[in-house]
Amino acid sequence: MTVPGRRSSTFIRLLRSGFTDPSAAARLLDAEALAAVRADPVLLDALGATADPDLALLGLVRLAEAQPSGELPGLLDTLVSAKPLRDRLLGVLGASEALGDHLARHPRDWLTLVTYEAADLHPGLAEFESGLADAHDPVALRVAYRRCLLSIAARDVCGTIDVAETAAELADLATATLRAALRVASAAAPEDAAQCRLAVIAMGKCGGNELNYVSDVDVIFVGEAVNGTDEGKGIQAATRLASHLMRICSETTVEGTIWPVDANLRPEGRNGPLVRTLASHMAYYQRWAKTWEFQALLKARAVAGDPDLGGQYIDAITPLVWQAAERENFVSDVQKMRRRVVDNIPAAQVDRELKLGPGGLRDVEFAVQLLQLVHGRSDATLHSGTTLDALHALAAGGYVGRADAAQLHDAYRFLRAMEHRIQLYRLRRTHLVPEDESDLRRLGRSMGLRTEPVAELNKAWRRHASVVRRLHEKLFYRPLLDAVAQLTPGETRLSPRAAGQRLEALGYADPASALRHLEALASGVTRKAAIQRTLLPVMLGWFADSADPDAGLLNFRKVSDALGKTPWYLRLLRDEGAAAENLARVLSAGRLAPDLLMRAPEAVALLGDPEGLQPRTHEALEQEVLAAVGRAENPEAAVAAARGVRRRELFRTTAADIIGSYGTEDNPAEEDHGALVDRVGGAVSDLTAATVAGALRAAVHSHYGDTLPTRFAVIGVGRFGGHELGYGSDADVLFVHEPREGVDEQEAAKAAQTVIAEMRRLLQLPTTDPPLLIDADLRPEGRSGPLVRTLSSYAAYYRRWSLTWESQALLRAEPVAGDADLGDRFIELIDPLRYPMEGLGEDAVREIRRLKARMESERLPRGADPTLHTKLGRGGLSDVEWTVQLIQMQHAWAEPGLRTTRTREALAAAHAAGLIPTDEAQILDEAWVLATRVRNAVMLVRGRAGDTFPSEARELAAVGRYLGYAEGTVGEMLDDYRRITRRARAVVEELFYGA
Question: How far is CA 574 from CA 263, 782, 894, in A?
Fold first, then answer.
């Protein structure tokens, strides 16, 4: 009978001991099985010391109630009198629900925790083999495996062994289990065992002696026929043994499963034979293997089966592993591997992913393995399959800074400990940090965090993940700086040869020059050098992520030399998170943007302003240009001021385009490529219009003061009028004037001619800026006609002589500068020509088709690939634009939406009006956008215009990166371009030619 007040004091004590449900705990303590020990204060204190006291008590009651007759007193007596047993047993019960279930099913297995000998504290492979020796079938093997696992978990949760020792013991247990499974499989098929030699090679974490509690065990099988046996039959026998071994470990029985055995790391993966001979393995690795396969072989270890055959395999593949960094495609393979994994994690899980997420275990493992591949070819001390051992060797050799290695070591151990405890709870394969509060509480307490376990766990986890994220890149690059900057005394540094090897492995084509740039930037004791040493490790990683890291680093040095003495430059890069990454992307994406920045280095400030990359309006640009022109002392100074604005704004546009196309760590690449193209076209067209307006104002002012004797307007045509200018496009224009009242027509014409000549002279003055060429060849009569006409002269010409092609050219006419009223009246004049009432007659349609066909046959440059020419090639810009323009001339009189100078707007309007089916409109739009982006990319990369893909490999790769293709996939890019434009051409044949 409960004494009044007794329950409340027990309740309070249970709460203080860490129980979350004291009422349920009190009922469990009252269980008959615990009658002999329920009043023992030692028991309650021991339960309170576990990760989950409620779970530990429930498991203890289940174990006690399951004891065979007469054996319960022995359990309880040992429990209260032997502290080592008490701590181990209750520690396991409080951390693992799955092992509690095992003990309830096998109640005598607790006895494995009683002994406390030296061998029991640190068992090796021999002890685990002994523990599995009596298992002769899959069910018995599972029970024996769990019994051994119980002892490892007990030592782990009590702190007898650390996380690295736990992982090593789990790998030893896996080795013993594979050997036992092969023994069972051989006993079941002795005739197969007699025909072959079979070696089991552990890979992954098992091979590296760093296994988790629950993980796939990665293996490769090597087989040989025994003497006198046909090789084919011998390999078939070995395959049957290997398959049986996998089933023994992987299949679910009444005792559950052990773990999956995964052989997918073998040559050709799932598509390859399960077992190969040693010669077959070597033939594959020497001829077909990819870099990631050699990375995986870093951890290869012979663990079961024929030891001589396993040893021969390891001896044979080891030299290949350490020669992998010399392979032709090593750099591109590495860059692909560095960008992998995180993209494949579901968005809802990425923040809880302990292994594959940013700052996770894979980041550490990958970084260490890559550095081993780069430097292990000349340093055998790095030849370890164990991550922490390899990290220690890298630090000892100077390949990783000691402080960085220490931080990474601590972070990795913490994250692995979290992973172990998460998996131990239910013995399930997972790398996700739980969301439930009770699960987080148990996890935190199991890690020794007792005051505020959930808050402390989250804080520690985020801190260590942040360290990994920060050091993941720094790990590669910081020692490069130490090698050239001669910093911390007493620290082992990379040799020049090792630094060059690392830069080469990361994509730098000229490591010697790169090291000189690093030395110039980071050497010395100045504050500037100190900030550069902080920035460069990350900057170098961003450069390496581009198609031309060398150019990125060289350009960064040039900008830093130009701005190094300004107080704000390095502070901007250091303090504004986006500025440094944006700058790295811009400097390594090609020639145009860096060239613009070199001529206006102060424009780098735009990269740190959240609004700095937004295009400015036409009105704002024109106002700034005209104000600058108005302040100039002469026309040359005026146009120089206009060019200065153009230079800065071109940089703004190119930078926004590059950053939007590449994406950054915080902002992924723009998925709407059409929006990117529209922004570039609109920004460059508005900027060109403002520059033309400035040149016009300067020309008028230099010859006529404030008022020109004739009203004068500039009409943009072609891409200029369509707001579709690219970086390398000429400005196609028409000039129109109208004499002011009382002014002689000849005097007015002379004034207009003078202004045009002066505009052209000013815009063609020698400069390092991208040229701005004004082209008036689309005027009436072409080059044979007068450069400028009056409005009435245009009206007379169009009324009498206008040809169909001239009406088509006017579809994209729009006033861009000069007298706005005159420009509007010019548009009123040409609207009936470009949007003819009742559309085009059959003769006019035939004439347009004939002109297009002639252009295709005559204007494509000799030797050009018609499938890759963006302007005149199959399915390119010309095909799409002529198709849209034909529809405009036929239907714009009735469909107001078609009365636009912009190709994509007109295409959308044609679709909305039912003139083009949805699929065909999308095909044409996709092809036009892609061709436009290729032209923009070529100009960004080469610094000069081009209508086809570059032939030089690095330039072609840079175009690919701009278009969103990973390193090494330019063939895929060209295939995609041909496929998309081929589909567009089929639509053009139907809609334009009526095929």
Answer: 47, 55, 58
